[in-house]
């Protein structure tokens, strides 16, 4: 949902930076890798140490690499499949690091098992959401629908985690994670239903 409405804004915002990087002979792949490493450091180093606010700030500095590398690839007219594969694969590393980092902290120094467990459930459901789309596309279907896509999950997680780092009650983060779990479940159903309808239509089309 956020991809649909915010992509134009962020494309315009980061196009000058993308152009500057191209002039410096930086490749889109390098931006993808560096961005992912930055997010993973924030998630697996800052968060487990309890630095929820500064960890979020650090992550935000790198999270938009996912937009910048796409702009660079389009400007350079790169149409190969490698970039898309690398981007999608490293996104899973980044997502895993964020939810795992939150979970680690609240299982240890944060002393809030409810948040730790819910973060792990969000991690598993988020991977399922991404897997369903990837599998659908590999079979020739379109599953780019849903209430809680990657952008929504990251925005709500980072916002709630950063606010808790500033002193907002932990219950806020727990509520956000529970809502993300529910939204992810809805998204899974939506994507499976969408693929089911396409598969049924395909079979009926072959029978006529």
From TrEMBL:
Keywords from the UniProt entry: Cell membrane, Lipid biosynthesis, Lipid metabolism, Magnesium, Membrane, Metal-binding, Phospholipid biosynthesis, Phospholipid metabolism, Transferase, Transmembrane, Transmembrane helix
Cofactor(s) for this UniProt protein: Mg(2+)
List of residues binding a CDP-1,2-diacyl-sn-glycerol: 29-32, 70, 74
Binding positions (Mg(2+) 2): 66, 87, 91
Residues the entry annotates as binding Mg(2+) 1: 66, 69, 87
EC numbers, comma separated: 2.7.8.-
Transport keyword on record: no
InterPro entries: CDP-OH_P_trans, CDP-OH_PTrfase_TM_dom, CDP_ALCOHOL_P_TRANSF_CS, PIP_synthase_PgsA1
Keyword RNA-binding: no
Main location: membrane
Cofactor binding summary note: Contains a di-nuclear catalytic Mg(2+) center.
Gene3D superfamilies named among the record's database cross-references: 1.20.120.1760
Swiss-Prot/TrEMBL catalytic activity: a CDP-1,2-diacyl-sn-glycerol + 1D-myo-inositol 3-phosphate = a 1,2-diacyl-sn-glycero-3-phospho-(1D-myo-inositol-3-phosphate) + CMP + H(+); 1,2-di-(9Z-octadecenoyl)-sn-glycero-3-cytidine-5'-diphosphate + 1D-myo-inositol 3-phosphate = 1,2-di-(9Z-octadecenoyl)-sn-glycero-3-phospho-(1D-myo-inositol-3-phosphate) + CMP + H(+)
Record field: transmembrane: 30-47, 53-72, 114-134, 154-180
Subcellular location: Cell membrane
Active site (UniProt): 91
Enzyme class per UniProt: transferase
Pathway: Phospholipid metabolism; phosphatidylinositol phosphate biosynthesis; Lipid metabolism
One Pfam entry name: CDP-OH_P_transf
Organism domain of life: Bacteria
Subunit structure: Homodimer.
NCBIfam families on file: PIPSynth
Sequence similarity: Belongs to the CDP-alcohol phosphatidyltransferase class-I family.
Protein function: Catalyzes the conjugation of the 1'-hydroxyl group of D-myo-inositol-3-phosphate (also named L-myo-inositol-1-phosphate) with a lipid tail of cytidine diphosphate diacylglycerol (CDP-DAG), forming phosphatidylinositol phosphate (PIP) and CMP. PIP is a precursor of phosphatidylinositol (PI) which is an essential lipid required for cell wall formation.
Protein name (Swiss-Prot/TrEMBL): Phosphatidylinositol phosphate synthase
Lineage per the UniProt record: Bacteria, Bacillati, Actinomycetota, Actinomycetes, Micrococcales
